[in-house]
Every structure is written in C-alpha cells, then in structure tokens.
Structures
1.
Amino acid sequence: MIDTPQTRNQPAKEGRTGPANSHIADLVRRIRAGELRALARAISTVEDRTAESTELLKALFPFSGNAVLLGLTGSPGAGKSTLVDQVAREYRKQGKSIGIVAVDPTSPFSGGAILGDRIRMQSHHADPGIYIRSMATRGSLGGLASTTADVATVLDASGRDIVMIETVGVGQDEVDIVRLADVTIVVLVPGMGDDVQTIKAGIMEIADIFVINKADRDGAERVEREVRAMQSLAARKDDWTPPIVKTVASDETGISDLIAAIEKYRQHLQQNGRAQTRRIGNWRERITEMLRDALFQRVLQHYLSEGDATRYAAEVAEHKRDPYSLVEKIVGELGKPE
C-alpha cells in the first residue's frame, strides 16, 4: 500500500468515543491487528505532533525493536527509489513484510512531500505486505524529517519485518540516518560527479555497505577503485570492511547480492554484542536529540514568546546586550518553578 495525502485523510470508520487512553489502546490494537487505515492514522498523528502523539508512541514502543531498520542514502539521481523498490520486492519473495519511509524534499507550495519518486513504487499499491509512506523534510537537515525515527517506531510496532528508510538525498550533510538504521547503505552512481572525492567528507564514513548503482555505465570501475582506496586508509573499529555491491536496479541486476551483503552484516552485528552496542549508541544520540527538542519547545512555550524573541534579537543586533548572557538567563529560568 502506498500512503498518500489522499488516502490518509479519509475519515476513519471508528470515531473517538471514549477517553484518550481507551482511544489510543483501541488504535494500538487495530495497528497490531494489521489494519492499514489505523496505521496511516497513527503515522499522521506522530508526524503532525498532535496532542496525543506522545501517548501513542508510549503505547506502541513496547511492541517495537523487532524490525530490521535499513537506511539508504546517497546523492540525488543515484537511483535510491528504484533500488528500494527492488529490494522490497526481493524481501517480499521471502515472505517478509515491509515498511518504507521515503523522505522527500518539502514542496514550497503545500509544505508536503514531493511524491514524484514514489511513482516507481506504484506496482506495490495492492500489496498489503508493503506499506509506503512519503514524508516531507519540513526544513530538517541531515536527510531526514524530524519525526522519521518515530514513524519508523510505529512501523516497527505494527509488526513489519523490514523497515526501509530512504533519505532525501542532500549530499554531505546526509548523515543522520546512521543514528537510526541498523544497516546503512550508501548508494553511489558513476558519471554524475558522485565520486568519492566529492562526497567523502560527509556520507562516505557512515556506510556499512556501498552500492554502486547504474553499474552498467562508464565509470563504475573508477568509483569502485576510489572506494577501495579510501577503505585502505582507515579501518573501522568494529573490524568490518564495507563490501561494494554493483547493481543495476532498473533490471534487478545485483539485488540478490545486496540482500546477501545485508544479511552478512547482520550476522557480523550478532557477534560479541555488536548489535546491542550499536543500538545503545543510536539511542544515546536519539535521547539527546529528544531532550534538546523538548527543552526547546518548553522555552518557546513558557519563556520566549514571539515578541520576546524579536525584542531580544534587536537588542543583540544593536549590541545593547550580548547573546551569551541572554542564553544563560533563559536557561536559568528553566530550573525555577513556573
């Protein structure tokens, strides 16, 4: 199923009739039972950060932690959407259920996700075993929307075996995915200035697996040589050398090799508690981000109105006060009773 604004805005068959906790419990029950409309409603609640989103996530979290989270990142034009489509198709042949979160640029007109790349996934529209959700970045950097991790939690809790996250494709800043995914796949493509020298300062260091897509093009061998040269200069702490898989996603070439590489890395993670260590590191980063966001929202709600922000900015711009003392003052207010 492809979740679009048209499908997700349809009214639910069941209305909200009881208290918030019973409503959430019912929604969780329906999600766990595989109701796609309930899943779409839950994701919309989380993505829009409505009043009940936190309670919903609290209720769903105990059911999460079982899905394999695959992150696919790389520059625009690398063919990530086609690759995701083919990988999902291969996993479906194995009987696995799939959730796909496709993070797209934000439309300057509607503020929503630009859904053009999802056209390639239309063949899955009648398959309940694949659920596809497009998300807008809404100004977030790092290639992910600010609620992507929470949406992944909802899909995980719904019982999906594999959750695939395709980032927006922003280049060197696209590194947030490594803090969320169990396996991070960096997609390269020859002939588009997408060689190692142009992007190694950003996403090259986060790859668990490299994919050279559109490998039938001239320049694929050069990209592979450059990746191997880079790998020879620095060894990873976890004793893993990211494999390089060549694919032509448009005709399924190399997809089975990519699935095999994913499984091999997952086996590597199971040794010596590496998987748990990775998830602990990911959650440490995520909790820090959640605290930062919660504190910022509290400051905006209670200590920094729109008028105050404008006034403070004017005072700093005119050098009537320094920004460092101002921030200390606002942070100091957080510890006082409201």
2.
Amino acid sequence: MTKYFTADLHLNECRIGTNNLYFRPFQTVEEQNRTIITHLNDMVRPQDELYIVGDVAVDAAGVGLLQQVACRNKILIVGNHDGDKLNLLQKYFKEIYESLDLRVGDVDCHLNHYPLNHVPDRFNIVGHIHGLWKVKPNMVNVGVDAWHFRPVSEAEILFVYDSIKNHYDGHVFVHC
C-alpha cells in the first residue's frame, strides 16, 4: 500500500481556460474532470491510500464524480469548499479530518488545507493555493494545479522533504 496526496481538485469547476482564476488549461469542464480522475486512477491503486487535502468539488454533481475514483481508502482533510458538502462527501471517504498528523516514511507530517495553518515541528502537506507555488521551507503544496493534475506519491513527498532539508541553501527561498 502506497500513500498519495492531492488537493484542490475542484471537480466540476467551471472557471477554466486561459481567462480564469486558476489558469486550468481545459476546453470543457468534462475534460478537466476526466483528466483529474484519469490521472488519479492511473497512479493510485484500489488498495492504496489517497489523502485529499481539501477542496474536492464545487457542487454535488462534482462530489458524485468520486464514485469513478478506484481507490477505496480515501481520506479527506477539509478545505474551504468542502464544509457545505460534508454530508455528501462522507459517502466517499473512509475518514474526514480538519487536519491530520501522519508519518510518511520516516518523516512526521502535518496535513492541513491552509498553508497559514502550518506547524513548525513537522513537514507540512498543504493545498489551497493551487499553482501559486510548489514548495516553501518545511512545506509542500500538493494541489493538482502545481503537479500537472496528478496526485503526489509518498516517494515524491520524501524527495521534496529531503531536497528542502539537505540540499537547498539559504538562497533558494526569499525571506521577507
């Protein structure tokens, strides 16, 4: 069993194309939904664990698309677009949390939708900011917009953690 992470799927999101908030390069909502679900099913096996770090869908029909995701072990970390749909989302998730502390390999991680809710003593796995950035000191954004609309594997999380901790110097991140 492998762990995978993703965020900000926004299934059924109609703000697509080049003139939109998220710059999602799809011609239709159906193309967007199909791409995200296909990438999930291409990588995540039914016995794996899929952590969605918030913002699953924009409406009930988008939530219903989760039935197409083959992975049975889905865990939700609630995002700002999920709260009003929790009763619908419960059907598709094994567990639902506001935030979660989780061991990934040998790294203690904290999962929370909001980067501002990071914790200093763990590696933070976040979403919410779409493709604005991918990594910051002690944190990775697993939003689909930052990862070519595919989930991030446990191995990739550990690679990013190792890169930040052991290979990036003080000139990589701007500190204001």
3.
Amino acid sequence: MKQLLMVAILALSSMVQPAYSQGKNHHIVFIPKSSSDLAFWKIMRQGCDKAVQEFGNVTLTWRGPAYDDDTDSQIRILENYIRPDVDALVIVPTDRNLLLAPIRKAAEMGIKIIVVDSGLNGNVHRNFIATNNFSGGKLAGKRLVDVMGNQGKVLVLRTVVRSASTDDRADGFVDYLWNNAPNVQLVADEYGGGSKGKAQASGLALLKKHPDLTGIFAVNEAAVSGMLQALRTTGNAGKIKLVGFDSSDTLLSGLEKNEISGLIVQNPALMGYLGIKSAVEAINNVPVKEENQLIEAKTVTPQNLKTPEIQRLLFP
C-alpha cells in the first residue's frame, strides 16, 4: 500500500520545536482500535513514526487488539500501560463509553491522554484529533444519491455499537438522506462487526434479506472490503452501488472497475502525526491551542481518481 502522507504533514514538520528534543526520553503508548493488516492502521503508524523521528526523544509503544470490536482486549492493553514509566497515552477508543473509566484512571496518575480518530465521552483527554466524520458521512450520502439518480433503496453497514467515528459517519449519511433525498428509502441500518470476515457474512445476509437494493454505504475499510466481497460473491458487484469510507489497494481496484462508486478518503497519517505531536506538547506543558482538530475528508470517484489533485492525495 502506497503511503497516504499529505502535504500537510510536511508543513506540520516545521512546527516541531527543537527544545522538545532536549531532556529525558518520553515514553508514549499508542493504542489503535486494531493491530490488523488494514491499510488505515498501517498508514496511521507511518504518521506516528514520522513524528517520533522528528522529535528524537520519544520511545513509542504501538499495541492494539486484533480486531476493531474487541473492546475487552483494548481495555486490558490500556490497563497494562497505566504505570509510572508511561508519560502519555494516545488511544483510538473502540467504545466511547467503556474506555472512559480506565482512561480516567490513567489521567489521575498524571499520564497525558490524547484521543485520535474515534471519540470518547467525558473530558479527561487533552486533545481530540479526527476526521470530520459526520461531514464525511454526508459526503457519502451525496455521492450515493447522485449515482442512484436520487431514488431507490439503500442500507448502511456499520461496524460495532458505540464506535464513535463510524457511528458519526453513518449518522451523517442518514442526515443527508433525510434532508436531501425524499425518494430514497433507507431499508436497513445494521452493525456488521469489526473485521472483513464479519462484514462479508453480514453483507451476504443483508443482500439475501433485501434483494431489491439500489445502494449501500459501508462505514470503514473492513466494512467496505467485506461488503465488496459479498457483492462479488452474489454477482451484484457494480449493479448495486457501493460507497464506502477509507482507501486500500483492494478498494481502489474496486473503484477502477466501477464495483465501488465512491470512497470517502481520510488522512490517517496526519492523525497519527498530530497524535504524537500533541502528546509531546502535553508532556512539555505546552498550552493547548486547539482541543478538537477535525480534518476534512475527500470524495474519490472513478471519474476523479486520475486527476492530479486526487493522485497527490493518494500517492504524494
């Protein structure tokens, strides 16, 4: 998978203050939703590594559960790092509620907390850095409605309950339909699980239950990949319009074949970079300039895929 590093990272690099590189080594623990082979997490890790290299006095521990829906494992990992040698925790919560208690415990010990990509209830974290997911969901709604001709039956394939980022995308999608597409009927809004395999199984069941579908919105890379495979298995790829979140070689190939009508593309590298940067600033008691940093997503289609702007976004 080619890197999704955007020009914005280069600009941010110049903001690193040399003074941060002085003094003791900082131990930052980054806990993603998943340690799977999804391109999204690989690219986010690249952004983290870039920031670590620039600051120079950071030891990074990267550890997440096997799948996006394994909240119990994420809690156990988190609890393992609530200890004196950890200066900051950067976390992508699998559950906006259940992670709050152990994160509050870490904060009470003086560990700096940065939340990235997916929201957390409460106010114990110093920064929240994420895609503007609700806005991205509206982009997905617009794209799907446009390719469907503003009529037909659609469904939403979510991942897991209380995943803030993906729920925000689904909610933005539904909001767009409600306000802009009176002739489009939402026939299903389901949670399909946190892995490609679970999403494929859910997709097959939903396609059987709703044989007259016109369009589908899938909320992340695993959900899009699983649903794409379900559509291929049933002979519906390219017939039922599919719009999804995230990018990978597999999804871009589906886009080129017109099996996918649109991808809402994020910048996980920038999120990772800013997560580490914010953690270092917190450790050094730098005043917070922006508690919430929202990054706008872009719509990538078969029609604009080869344009210079999108190529720079995907392959800088």
